[in-house]
Amino acid sequence: MRRSAHALTGIFFRTRSTLLKAYLDEAGINLDALRHAVEQQTLPQIAWLAERLVSQIEAITRETATWSLREWDSASPGLARWQRKRVKHQEFERRLLEMTEERKARLAQVTGFTEQQVLHREIEAFEGRLARCRHALEKIERVLARLTR
């Protein structure tokens, strides 16, 4: 999992990686060092390592707590977000096609003039929505093509 460029760097960690795993690994190393210091009963080192480890865990906790917020605040949505948009629009397209076909089937069976008019209007509305949906899908596909080059 990637993290923001500055949130964890600084006084709590030595690593400058952009991957959360590197920060977790460093905290794990400090935990091992704390265990060793406890075995050796070196009190100043125990106190320093325990304090550092608590600070690191708090920093990681704060960082992970903001992930969901950061996803929506992101100025440039990532590949996964555009892929979700594509799936959502493909589902809209499928449903609009179903509704259009259902109205056309009903239109073929209806004999009353007013019912035919209503169904024609509904079909036109669905076809307009379908055209807009397909246009949006084309835009999404172009964005995805740019992002995956």
Question: What descriptive keywords fit this protein?
Answer:
single chain, 149 residues, mainly alpha, Substrate Binding Domain Of Dnak, Chain:A, Domain 2, 2 domains, rod-shaped, disordered N terminus, Primosomal replication protein N, PriC
- Characterize the overall form: rod-shaped
Query: What is the C-alpha radius of gyration, as a whole number of Å?
Result: 28 Å
| Secondary-structure-derived class | mainly alpha
N→C terminal distance = 22 Å
The number of distinct β-strands equals: 0
What kind of sheet is the major sheet?
none
Pfam family, one: PriC
Organism: Citrobacter koseri
Protein name: Primosomal replication protein N
InterPro entries: PriC (IPR010890), PriC_sf (IPR038338)
In short:
This protein has 149 residues and is mainly alpha-helical.
Can you walk through the features of this model?
With about 150 residues, the chain is mainly α. About 80% of the residues lie in helices and about 0% in strands. The radius of gyration is 28 Å and the shape is rod-shaped. InterPro entries: PriC, PriC_sf.
